[in-house]
Every structure is written in structure tokens, then in C-alpha cells.
Amino acid sequence: MAPAAGAGSAAPGAAPGPAAAPVAPAPQAPAITHREERVDTPAGPVTVDIVVADLNRSELRATLLTGATVGERSSVPAHARRGGAVAAINGDFFDLARSNAPAGPSVRDGRALTSAVPPGRRLAPGVPGAQQGDVLAVDDDGTPRLDRLTLDASATGPTGRLRIDTLNAYAVPVGGIGLFTSDWAGDRAATLCGSNTDRDAPCAPDRFEVVVRDGAVTAVGPPGGGAVPAGEQVLAGRDQGAAALRGLAVGDRVTVRQGLTAASGTVPRTAVGASPILRDGTPVAGLDSRSRDPRSAAGLTAQGRLILLTADGRESTSVGITLAETAEQLRRAGAVDGVNLDGGGSSTMVFRDQVVNSPSEDAYRLVPNALGVVEN
pLDDT digits over 343-358, tens only? Predict the structure, then answer.
């Protein structure tokens, strides 16, 4: 006797059953999202806007949004439109109403634009443990990280090797030499004024600059202003730096070398100056817990996602947050590391062509740079 047909088998001569339906892949989460939250603080309610961008996804990349020169300002919406960014947030603190240049290092598409000013000249609230050159960086592969960038630059001529202290920075340290390239269009003489801690201190009594083109000195004299032409490099010194530059004359051959080095060992594709307020999932100890203001911040998750965050302030419906609360909001949003960006009237967030937060000033403040996310 033939054995009975087992479960799931077809009897001889029976028509075959229907084929199993293919399993549909799980829907992929959006690569970038925005949400608004209402947060209660001891001083009152606060509106927080959060953008999360998955930089592991090939369709997204982070970039630094700037003007043609480091001191050229635009509103964050204008930066976003010009750079084709789907999301953007204002960037570093800057020399408002003077050079308008950013305070920290900046890198756009792998090109070093600025180095850090002396720590005492950074126009930003003090953050415990912050160091000169702190940045939020993003690598070529889209990996975000906290890093520290330091200028490694020199000018070598007949008198020997001269150390260069800053690149396109609004404050050259006392006794130092600053390098200015075609990314700079401001007053170079003003960068040689003030002290390492006081922007309003007198200008250095001895100031001198040297213009280099095609590896040769083409001009020397008092520091000037205006745009640096393409192909030219200007060395501007104060005090001992000025004395060292006086050893160079028109016609001397000079080799200028400059670049940023990273504490991590890898110079990023994108970087914006910013002070860390969250490390390894823990807010930095000693952060200010009293001053309430509009805030902008950025963080990164353990999975490599980038978080952009603003908190509205100076309104009855949104009273602003402290630095300590900013770090906590980044942590709640999923960040393990995070930084404080320029705040107050600068705090502006754009998502898909719309300003989604409520900036505290009547008009959008013009800023020199913004951190953007672009869809490829």
C-alpha cells in the first residue's frame, strides 16, 4: 500500500498549491528627520527643535556652509539655499561687527579656511575643559567626531624659518605672525590689535606685513586691508613677529607652508569650531546652570548619526536653556558626544527650506558659517 501523503505534500495527480508570497523588506527609516519638543525647565517651558541625520546613508553628507570669504555673512536660510542643504544650523562664534570671522578652526571640503584665535579672544561662554582648536569634525566617509585642530605653518626665507601662529584669524597672538590668504577680505591691521585676552586693548606698537606671490616677496610695509588677491599670501606680524618679518625684503625667496593637524591623526573633510559639552554620554562637569539663552548645539550618536539642536529663548513661551541643560537635551536626543555652537540671536535652524525654530531677533542674524546636511 502506498504511504499516506504527509502534511504539506500533494497527493498524486493533485494540482500544485499556490507559491509562497515573497517577504517584503522592512521599510527603511528616513535618512533625515525633524521634530519639535516642548520641554519643562525650572524656569518655564522651552521649545526644542531636533534634526537627526544618518550620515551612514550614502544619500547624505555633512558640509560647512560659508560665503566666498571667511568674514562674509549670510542668514542660515541663505547659507542653506546657496549650499543646497536640506538642513542647517548656525555654526561657530564669531567676531561680530568687526571682521565677522569665526573664532575657531574651519574646514570646508577638506580645505583649511581658518585656525583658532587665542583662547582668551574666543567670544564664547566659558566651557570647562575646552581647549584651543576644539571642533566638531566629519570625515570623508561621513563619520562625525569631536577633534582638535592645530595650525602647523611656517615661512622659510633667507633669515631662516619663521613660525606662523594663525590662519585667517581675527586675532594674531602677541608677538606672533598671522597668515592671510584669498579666503580673507577684512582689515589685517585690526588683527594685530588687542591682547591675548582683551579685544579692546591697544594695538601693537610695531606692526608689519610681507606679501608673497609665486614664492617671492613682492611688497613689505604697514599692514593693510581689503581682499587678498588669489595667488597671494600675506604675513602680518606684531611685536617680535613684526621684527622677524622686517628681515625680509622685496625679491627674497620665501616658502610658505601651512596646514591643520588633527589630534585624532586624520584631518577631516568638514569642521566647525565648537566647545565640547557632552562626552561619552555624560555632560561635562561644571557647565553653567544659571544663564538662560537661545542655544544651538550639535551631537553625534554611537551609530554615527548627526544631531542638530536649537532651543528657543527670550520669549514668555520659551525661556531658553542653560549650557548644562543643553548637554542634557543632546543626551536625551541620543547623542554620546556633543558641542555648543553660537547661540543667542544667532540660533537658527533650517529644515527643508523652512526656518523651524523661533529666532530671538526680529531679523535672521547674519553669520559667517553654518553646519549643513546635503542630500546627494
Answer: 999 999 999 999 999 9
